[in-house]
């Protein structure tokens, strides 16, 4: 897919702050129109708006830490309470100037997060009020900020959160000023032989054309030949001095172009990790509680800490969900209690969070101008004895003969595209077609558990075989289980959406009865029968602190082990997170590379029936810019090439 070049004009940075502010205006004005009917928000005129008033961080009685001046969430980081307070003051000023309804929520934040109606159906009104509170930045409660999401920092958190706060947007690395060059010595006319290793040096410079002297930026390098639809991703090492070393091999002959991009700036990673560690989430949910006498919507999260709620005012819905899930207790206690929980819905927008002007500008820059392509005129002429348009010989070993634990060790250059088809280096994929799949999947149940990308894999496999859809996708319940069977071959293909947090469509209320815990589903499978279980957990977990995915993966690992112990005819495929140069506001791909490491490290070592389907390098190689990669069919052919012939 093509790149959109990052403009080198000096005016680009001057427009970023304005663009960021204008986006805030648009969202807040839309929310203002949406909340016209909420009674308590219509009592203050614009003239009464206290724009300059300081946003005070609030403390509830049961969340104070006597004698400890350091918040647990800030321990071993460079973040300070003073930094957060300054960001809140800016956040308050901007939101109040834009929407006078924000003023009363800032003055009376207790009105923001709980229903003001004492009876009747206030669900719609509650949802609108919570949406407004979220985009008005009314998050200054110690009960969400002070506790650490987990006691120890992840290694990457410790690295990025120890860096100083961004002071000037010109301090970040700028792709247009940076360079990529050969470290390997090419022959005349930049010639290399087929199969050669090639090495590159990337040097990053900031907006003042000064060489960066510290690492931390995420750099992607890949090689491609558009004429033969070929591409490969390089392995990149951060030298921690502003330079990066990229290494790959040359598996096809012809003219090969070298491309590089700053995938994410270290200052952006610091910003996003700060938001997730302090505020736990960047996009909140509401829970719907309904009885015959009343209805109400409250705030929900996989963390117990909810703004405006003390510990005894929270419903623990973990047993219903199968993984941690908490919602505020309804205030209509006469009519509603925790047992009346019926569904959840995402708020319309990601939250407007406390940030500096520079951090917000960087966030907007990322979401509007990715990818940041580093200028490169490097072109390689790859020579082969067999002539042009040739590749390395196919491996003698078939992929269904390769040990599955080795898939957890594959690096970025473990495979490449040629004529648009993915080819692993270590083994040869068998052809996947309707006939081979009918034989491969006979007497087999294939189960997909995950998000819309998991559903896509289910749909792809269903289209490749002969099966009858027993459960169709319906507009009434858009996110729900699916099933396609072939009674003649005793094959069943099934999809189950994973449990909360699950981001449904706009205005969709997702019922917990149509969502499934990976662990509970794995535990429900019997000790007899052939099963292929495909798991994928990614996009719906990215707005939350890493600890949520970490816990989910560890619980899932234990369930996988139990299933493998009792059923010798099961194969597990775990599809990794993928890369996407997504330019939409609120995109979920900023921390994906760290999620890959969590997935790989936690699920490693489960034995010879668990495969790691490493899709990250595939998506980097094609400069994917979609959260639903168009090359998903290659993901399917890849894992099917490993499991067909292995099932017994």
TrEMBL record:
<feature type="domain" description="NXPE C-terminal">
    <location>
        <begin position="422"/>
        <end position="644"/>
    </location>
</feature>
<protein>
    <submittedName>
        <fullName>NXPE family member 4-like</fullName>
    </submittedName>
</protein>
<dbReference type="InterPro" id="IPR014756">
    <property type="entry name" value="Ig_E-set"/>
</dbReference>
<feature type="transmembrane region" description="Helical">
    <location>
        <begin position="12"/>
        <end position="31"/>
    </location>
</feature>
<dbReference type="InterPro" id="IPR013783">
    <property type="entry name" value="Ig-like_fold"/>
</dbReference>
<keyword id="KW-0472">Membrane</keyword>
<dbReference type="InterPro" id="IPR057106">
    <property type="entry name" value="NXPE4_C"/>
</dbReference>
<keyword id="KW-0812">Transmembrane</keyword>
<keyword id="KW-1133">Transmembrane helix</keyword>
<dbReference type="Pfam" id="PF24536">
    <property type="entry name" value="NXPE4_C"/>
</dbReference>
